Amino acid sequence: VKSVLVTGAAGFIGSHLCEYYLRHGYQVVGLDNYLTGSLDNIEYLQQHYKSDFFFIELDVSKPWPYIENFHIQNLKYVFHFASAASVKNYQKYALETMWVNSTGLSNAIRFADDHKARLIFASTSEVYGTPLSSPQKESDWGNVNSFGARSCYDESKRFGEALIYTSNKAHDTSHGVLRIFNTYGPRMNPDDDRVVNSFISLAKATQDLVVYGNGKQTRSFCFIDDLINGISLYANSELNQPVNLGNDSEISILELAELVIKMTESHSKIVFKPLPKDDPPQRRPDLSIARTLLGYAPSVSLSDGLKKFIGTK
Ligand SMILES: NC(=O)c1ccc[n+]([C@@H]2O[C@H](COP(=O)([O-])OP(=O)(O)OC[C@H]3O[C@@H](n4cnc5c(N)ncnc54)[C@H](O)[C@@H]3O)[C@@H](O)[C@H]2O)c1
Predict the structure, then answer these.
(1) How far is the CA of 35 from the centre of ligand 1 (A)?
(2) Under 8 Å CB-to-CB from 250, ≥6 apart: which residues?
(3) How do residues 145-172 score in pLDDT, each as one tens digit?
């Protein structure tokens, strides 16, 4: 039997990753301290994959004591996905976010190296900061503020990427980096304030949908199934360079608000508030590398993904 280890297993993406590998016959070890995730996200896995899913409550930024002794057979991948991910959560847990993407990542790399496994680090489109061009290409170095409200997240992810690069050179390993763009779907943290999630909740409760600025800033949204497919293609490849993953069709925040109201048949109104600091005007991945080197092709349209997501809420 092959196995994988997932940090952030009780989170949105982490729980879907666990499920994907369990379905494909792997044993899965999940680690999480429930900082922004929840037991609800993994209860189903614990019930349905009793003998193949092992969950350990652990702050992965602290030393991994008993995990070191935990018997893991044939460990193929370590997915380091633990980290607060939304603006609201990483500002609330700013220091924790810096540690999990540095010390936590370092622990995960050491564990992967000890088991001769390949590690995949969840980086983010936020490493591009306020983009100077669009769509964002992996070769863009970023326009990032190192001393501000978003820097705990942006800069710790950038440090994480540098740590992977440096540690690969030092130890002759091939750990990889994925730059994930906005992803949505079932099991997102309901209090997260991430735009798709909060628009659906507000529309269902017939409350006002808050749009910041004039709503013309654009985003691209990827359905979780497409992302998981991309992560598994990358894990299975030999690549270790950062690769963008997401969906490259673009929609303005105002259009998204209108679409959600229509799809939930809501009577909510749209209200406008001032744009928060450092809110990027545009965020869209250039997926050429993922398409050509991985054969990645996001296939779930926004309206189909929203339909599936709304159905589970
Ligand atoms: N969702 C997105 O659109 C998106 C976009 C870009 C990058 N990412 C990255 O993907 C990863 C997962 O994001 P998500 O959307 O699933 O967020 P999430 O908040 O749902 O999941 C993160 C999980 O990590 C856990 N965690 C945090 N710190 C921990 C620690 N010290 N020890 C153990 N567990 C810890 C949390 O409890 C949570 O379960 C993150 O690294 C995030 O930066 C996500």
Answers:
(1) 9
(2) 218, 219, 220, 282, 284
(3) 999 999 999 999 999 999 999 999 999 9
For ligand 1, whether the C-beta of 13 sits within 6 Å is yes
> Ligand 1 atom 13: the closest Cα is on which residue?
85
The predicted-structure confidence for 50-83, as pLDDT tens digits, reads as follows 999 999 999 999 998 766 666 688 999 999 999 9
Pairing of strands 27-32, 176-180: unpaired
Stated pTM of the model: 0.96
Q: What distance in Å separates the CA atoms of residue 252 and residue 228, rounded to the nearest whole number? A: 25
What's the chain's length in residues? 313
Residue whose CA lies nearest to ligand 1 atom number 7 = 124
What residues act catalytically?
153
CA distance 252 to 213: 12
β-sheet bridge partners, residue 243: 178
Given this model, what pLDDT does residue 279 score? Answer: 73
